[in-house]
Amino acid sequence: MSSLSDVLTAVQHILLVDDEDDCNFVTKLVLKKAGYKGRLTTFTSADEALDHLRADLDKPDLMFVDINMPKHTGFDLLAMCENEGLLPNGCTSVVMFSSSNRTADLEKALSFRSVIGYIEKALTVDSFERVVRDHERLRTS
How far apart are CA 48 and CA 52, in angstroms? Predict the structure, then answer.
C-alpha cells in the first residue's frame, strides 16, 4: 500500500461545495493539518460549482458536496452532473458532506454513481485520510 504522503500527492485538486463559510474555513484548516498541499477550490452554491464543472477547466480529484444548501441541494447538483455526463468522469471521487446522519440521506448519497463516501461534518484528519485512501484505491483498481 502507498504511504499517506504518496496518496496525498496524487490528490492535486479538491472542490468543496458548501454554503457555510464557517464550515469551509474549518475544512481548510483540517486539510492543512492533514498535510494536503494541493489546490482547493471553494464554491458556496451548487450553481457556481455546476458552472465550473461545465466549463471543464480542470476536473477535481475529490469533491466534497454539502447536502443542505439553498436553491439547489447537493443531491440536485449531483443529479444535474450525472444527467449532463459531467460525473462520473473517471478521475473525480465525490464525498457527500453533511451535518445530517439520517439513514435516508446516506442511502440517497450512495445511490449516485460518482459518490464514494459520506462524511458527517466537520471533516477530521482521519476522515480525510480515509477518503483519500478510498479515492486512491478506486483509481488504481
Answer: 6
